[in-house]
Write a sequence for this structure.
């Protein structure tokens, strides 16, 4: 089972690239983030024509997450996280596919920091961690896949100096991510590439792609039962080079 996380940066603008990726790679599950589409305007017909069922949690112009499954309809389990009833951001969607629980996650960016957006980011990490603990208790294969907007380690970025003031790399952001992983989750990409230097995002600005000035913010965290089935993990980097591509590359883990 190839499980992919892919921040598409606007599903309407990237739909040709997404359909192309599904046709060429035929992943079993794809978690999408940053749909920038309401529930009503999600391109369900195009996704189904590509051979995928889908559940989605949209939001007009901002955020939005989805789970796609090849040849079947994901069974939705939960949308949104408990803890802040006034939070109307579409950032979390949990589904089950062939006995594997999969969550699509779009963690808040948090910039500018310090400030209310950064405070919201840290609270959101804590709310995710609370849900993650509940999922571990179920003792099922679980994959928490998404754009975490956290650079966990210094070797997960092209330049520590360039990113030192960014919310993605603040000590509090990193500590929240480490506390989450320490519950018993396995960082799939880090496990397969322990020396770092693997990027999942390249900004559109300043020739970042051409300079390979990227960093790793897209992660797949595996529960113990999922980690036992881990075969490989990687980044389909070449899709970032295509015309009108997302600024993220599809990032994946393969399970037995």
């Amino acid at each position: 089972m190839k499980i992919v996380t892919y921040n598409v940066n606007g599903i309407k603008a990237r739909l040709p690239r997404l359909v192309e990726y599904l046709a060429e790679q035929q992943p079993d599950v794809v978690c999408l983030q940053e749909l920038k589409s309401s529930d009503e305007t999600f391109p369900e017909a195009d996704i189904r024509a590509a051979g995928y069922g889908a559940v989605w949690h949209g939001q007009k112009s901002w955020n939005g997450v989805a789970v796609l499954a090849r040849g079947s309809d994901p069974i939705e389990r939960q949308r949104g996280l408990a803890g802040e009833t006034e939070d109307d951001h579409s950032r979390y969607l949990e589904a089950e596919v062939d006995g594997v629980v999969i969550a699509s996650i779009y963690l808040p960016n948090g910039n500018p920091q310090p400030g209310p957006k950064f405070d919201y980011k840290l609270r959101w990490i804590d709310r995710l961690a609370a849900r993650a603990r509940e999922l571990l208790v179920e003792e099922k294969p679980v994959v928490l896949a998404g754009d975490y907007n956290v650079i966990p380690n210094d070797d997960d970025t092209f330049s520590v100096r360039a990113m030192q003031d960014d919310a993605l790399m603040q000590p509090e952001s990193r500590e929240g991510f480490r506390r989450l992983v320490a519950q018993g989750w396995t960082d799939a990409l880090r496990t397969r590439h322990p020396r770092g230097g693997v990027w999942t995002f390249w900004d559109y600005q300043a020739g970042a792609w051409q300079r390979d000035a990227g960093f790793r913010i897209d992660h797949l965290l595996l529960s113990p039962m999922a980690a036992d089935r881990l075969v490989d993990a990687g980044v389909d980097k070449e899709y970032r080079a295509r015309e009108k591509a997302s600024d993220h590359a599809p990032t994946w883990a393969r399970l037995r």
In short: The helical segments are 11-25, 44-49, 116-137, 160-163, 171-181, 188-192, 208-211, 224-227.
